[in-house]
Design goal:
The protein is mostly beta strands. It has a single domain (8-165), classed as Hexapeptide repeat proteins (UDP N-Acetylglucosamine Acyltransferase, domain 1, 3 Solenoid). Helices cover 6% and strands 27% of the residues. The chain has one helix at 155-165; strands at 8-9, 14-15, 22-23, 27-28, 33-34, 39-40, 45-46, 51-52, 57-58, 62-64, 69-70, 75-76, 102-104, 109-110, 115-116, 121-122, 127-128, 133-134, 142-145, 150-154. It is globular and about 55 Å long. The structure holds coenzyme A. Coenzyme A binds at residues 71-72, 111-112, 127, 129-131, 143, 145-146, 152, 158, 171. Residues 71-72, 111-112, 127, 129-131, 143, 145-146, 152, 158, 171 line the site of coenzyme A.
């Protein structure tokens, strides 16, 4: 079941290929767009007018505010010390760990193939470079890059100049 009955979709949400996503127990805000092969787990929240590009994984207890861009193949996490089993060898269940929440604030952008470790906040308007591994909170409007991600700039300058150029967004539809 690609889109479970437990999903709450806002108005005019666009899901490019409904048979190629896996959504369950999550909320997606008005006018957001979701590409192919995206998984959004239960108790994840996507705001309004977001773009979630193909192949991204948004796990339990991730909150994404309005107008956030998620690139292709972005991986969220919610357990910093994951284990398959408990010490007695029994498979771990939901009762055996506490999910760590992540917040992505409005108008932030996360570049393709970035990994966001759990329990973090990505600030308003911040930009995560492609391929980054984010291990610490990202301040509002910071540009961070690398493994581990470090601050390399400020989006106030970059996005202002891009907006002025009037160039269309050439990113793929999904
Ligand atoms: C972060 C980003 C915005 C920087 O762009 P920019 O301001 O034009 O930066 P520059 O190319 O001038 O690079 C500035 C420095 O950051 C480094 N850098 C840029 N992108 C980087 C990345 N993804 N990872 C690590 N370092 C990066 C450059 O090597 C350079 O370092 P140097 O000064 O030591 O040579 C851009 O590289 C990026 O990753 N954008 C996201 C693209 C994306 O994923 N889009 C979504 C799908 S289409």
């Amino acid at each position: 079941m690609p889109i479970a009955s437990t999903v709450h979709l806002g108005k005019n949400v666009r899901i490019y290929h409904e048979d190629q996503v896996n959504l369950y127990g999550c909320t997606v805000g008005d006018e957001s767009r979701i590409g192919s092969f995206v998984e959004i787990q239960k108790n994840a929240t996507i705001g309004a007018r977001c773009k979630i590009s193909s192949h991204s994984f948004i796990c339990e207890e991730v909150t994404i505010e309005d107008e956030v861009f998620i690139g292709h193949g972005v991986m969220f996490t919610n357990d910093r010390f994951p284990r398959a089993t408990n010490l007695d060898g029994m498979p771990r269940t939901e009762a055996d760990w506490a999910v760590e929440k992540t917040l992505v604030k409005r108008r932030a952008s996360i570049g393709s193939n970035a990994t966001i470790l759990s329990g973090l906040t990505v600030g308003e308007g911040a930009l995560i470079a492609a391929g980054s591994v984010v291990t610490r909170d990202v301040p509002d409007y910071a540009i961070v890059a690398g493994v581990p991600a470090r601050i390399i700039g400020d989006t106030h300058k970059k996005t202002a100049s891009n907006a002025r150029s009037g160039k269309p967004n050439r990113g793929s539809g999904n």
